[in-house]
Design a protein that fits this description.
With 73 residues, this protein is an all-alpha fold. The protein has helices spanning 20-23, 61-64, 67-70. The longest helix is centred in the first third of the chain and has 4 residues, at 20-23. The mean pLDDT is 78.
Length: 73
């Protein structure tokens, strides 16, 4: 087993992991401990994608490209 313990002041949602190279492409378990908890904190199980309007295509998208655009050789 390989264990790392460190303290950090969180400024964003990203944390730099010491000795990341030893853990790259491995399954790890992350535990976050805090001395104090904000009472209004809500747990979000997963971030949601931004709401964007649907794409509207005008005309036939495939036929608007010239034959030379399709030649990938």
């Amino acid at each position: 087993m390989f264990a790392i313990e460190f303290e950090a002041e969180l400024k964003s949602e990203f944390i730099r992991v010491p000795h990341f190279e030893k853990l790259k492409n491995r399954h790890v378990k992350v535990i976050v401990l805090s001395d104090s908890v904000n009472e209004t904190y809500e747990i979000h199980s997963q971030r949601r994608p931004a709401k964007v309007p649907p794409i509207a295509f005008c005309g036939d998208v495939i036929n608007t490209a010239t034959t030379s655009d399709w030649d990938l050789t």
